[in-house]
Design brief:
By secondary structure, this protein is an all-alpha fold. It contains two helices and no strands. Helix 1 crosses helix 2 (about 25-55).
Amino acid sequence: MPVVIKRVLAWGSLAFLIYFMAFRPEAAAQMFKSIGVALVAMAQGLGDFLTGLMT
């Protein structure tokens, strides 16, 4: 992917994130909480997998 397209997508994503947090703070907070819960669940699953390998 050309560098120009990557830059445009990155700046567009940042602008959308700022807009989303400014005008829909409750929805933005809920989205970030959901992402955090998913990351914790994935880490827990990986830990359970590695523990299962070691026992």
